[in-house]
Amino acid sequence: MRHARRRVVRRVTRLAAVGGVLLGGAMVAQAAMASEPPATSAAAAGTTAAGSAGKAGDAGAALAARLGTTRTAGSWIGADGRPVVAVTDAAAAREVRGAGAVPKVVRHSMDELKSATATLGSAPRVAGTAWMVDYRTNQVVVQADRTVSAGDWSRLSQVASGIGGFVHMERTKGAFTTRLNGALPLLSTGGRCSAGFNVSDGQRDFILTAGHCGPSGSIWFADSQGDQKLGSTVRSTFPGNDFSLVQYDSGSAGEGADVVSIGGGKGVRITGVADPSVGQRVFRSGSTSGLHDGQVTALNATVNYPEGAVTGLIQTNVCAEPGDSGGPLFSEGVALGVTSGGNGDCKTGGTTFFQPVTKALAALNVRLLVSAANAAGTQSASPAPSATAAGQGAMTPNAASPGSSAPVTGTTEGQTLLARLTDARAIGPGLLVIAGSLILLVATRFIRAEQDRRAYRRYYSATWG
Predict the structure, then answer these.
(1) Cys-Cys crosslink for 340: which of 79, 160, 242, 438, Cβ 3.0 to 4.6 Å?
(2) What is the mean pLDDT of residues 411-440?
(3) Is there a catalytic annotation at residue 325?
(4) For residue 36, is pLDDT > 90?
(5) CA end-to-end span of the chain
(6) What pLDDT is recorded for position 165?
(7) What is the mean pLDDT of the chain?
(8) What is the 3-state secondary structure of 159-218?
C-alpha cells in the first residue's frame, strides 16, 4: 500500500508539472499568483517594480513620444540592449543620438503607419487575418492564414495596394484561433483555459484571464469533475478586447499568491506591471504547454478571429497551444499580458498574441496584486534591460530571465484540489482516490507531449537551480 501510494504521488506530481496544474498553467487559483497590500495601486506597483526612465524600452518610447508621431515611427530594443528609435529626419536622428539611443532613419512616420492600419480596419472584416506595424522594417504587415479564401485574399491585397508599397502582404501557416480547447477536461462552462494574474478591487480578489474563455456567469472549477468550484466570471470583454475577471468564491486569492507557476514545482515572483517593448525577451506559461520564451515582435496588433476582431494586442514569436488561453506573459517578474490566441504549436513554433495587462487593469478598474516586499519599495524588477548613454554595460535582450525564482506553494483555507495534489505531504486516502481518477482522465491527453515538456523543464531545473 505504501509503495502504491508513492507511485500515485509521483504520477500526480508529474502531471501537475506539465502545465503548472490544469486550470492555471500559469497559476492555479489561490496558490499561484500574487499578493499586495490593499493600498497599492496598479500604477504605483508598475512604477515601483518595473522602474522607468533608465530602462531601454522606456527610454526609447520616451524619446519617440517627445519627438512626436510625424518625426518618429516606433522604438525597440536593439540586439545590444540599447534603445533604437525610428526617425524621419536627420535632426531627429541627432537628438536621439545625443540622448544615448540609436537612431534609424526611415521613410514613413508613425502617423502614416497608423493611417494604414485604420484603412485596413475600415475594410470588410476577413476572419483569419491579422495586421501589425513592424517598427524595425517600417512596414505594416498583413497576414492571412490558411482559412482565408483566394477571393478574400485578392480583395484585401487590393486594399493594401491602395494604401502604398509599405504594406506587406504575406500568407502564414495554420489558423489564427483563440487558444481555448473545450475537448480537454471541462474546467469551466466555456472550456479549459489558464489563469493569468491575481488582481483586486480593494475588497475582493479576482483572476485576470482571457475574455474568450467564457462570458459573464461562467462557472470555473479547479477539477475536471466539477467538485471544486473556484469562482465565477463576473466581467468579460471579447471580441474588441480579450480579458475577463473570475471572482474567487472565497473572496481572497490566499497566501503564497505572489508566484506564477512555470511547472515542476517552480515559480516566478510577480513584482509589478508594465507595457513591453519590441525586441524584449518575454516568457509565457500555460496549462497545456508550460513555460516557453521568445521576443515581442510588434505592439498594437489587430487579429480577426472567427468570433471577431481584437485590437491593441502584443505580438510575439512565443508558442502556445489550445488550453493556454489566459495564461500570463511576463519578464523579469513584471506582468505584461495574458494569452489571447495565435497560430502554430510548441513543436513547430508559431505566433501568439497577448492582451496587455495595463489596458485590462485600467478598463476593469482593478490593480495587480504583487509581492508585499516589492510594493513597499524594497524590491525592484525591470521589464527590459537598462540602457546607458554610451551603451556600455547594457544587457542584451536574450539575457533577460523570467524573474526571481520561488517555489509554488499551496494554502490552507480555500486551497484548490489540484494545488493540494501537487504537495505530497497533503495526500490522504480520500485524495488518492480523486488523484487516481484525475490521472485516468487526463493521462491519455498529455502523454504524447510529456517528453518534450519534460526536456524543457530539465533545462530550467539545471539553469535555475
Answers:
(1) 242
(2) 41
(3) yes
(4) no
(5) 33
(6) 95
(7) 76
(8) HHHHHCCCEEEEECCCCCEECCECCCCCCECCCECCCCEEEECCCCEEEEECHHHCCCCC
Q: What's the whole-number mean pLDDT along residues 225-243? A: 89
CA 382 to CA 404: how far, in whole Å?
Answer: 11
Q: State which H helix or E strand residue 324 sits in.
A: none
Q: Are 131 and 117 in contact (CB under 8 A)?
A: yes
Q: pLDDT at residue 229 above 60?
A: yes
pLDDT at 15: 32
- What crossing angle do the helices spanning 357-364 and 42-50 adopt, rounded to 10°? 160
Nearest to 339 by CA among 27, 18, 63: 27
The one catalytic residue among 58, 200, 212, 331? 212
Query: φ and ψ at 305, to 5 degrees?
Result: -70, 165
Is residue 242 part of the annotated active site? The answer reads yes
- Are the C-beta atoms of residues 313 and 288 closer than 8 Å to each other? no
Query: What is the number of alpha carbons within 13 Å of residue 174 lying toward its C-beta?
Result: 21
| H helical segments located in 230-386 | 357-364, 372-375
- Does the annotation mark 292 as catalytic? no
Percent of the chain with pLDDT over 70: 66
Amino acid, res. 14: R
Residues of the chain with pLDDT > 90, as a percent, come to: 49
Q: Which of 58, 134, 145, 242 is catalytic?
A: 242
Could you report the per-residue pLDDT of 104-116, keeping only the tens digit for each?
A: 999 999 999 999 9
Contact 351, 315 (CB under 8 A): yes
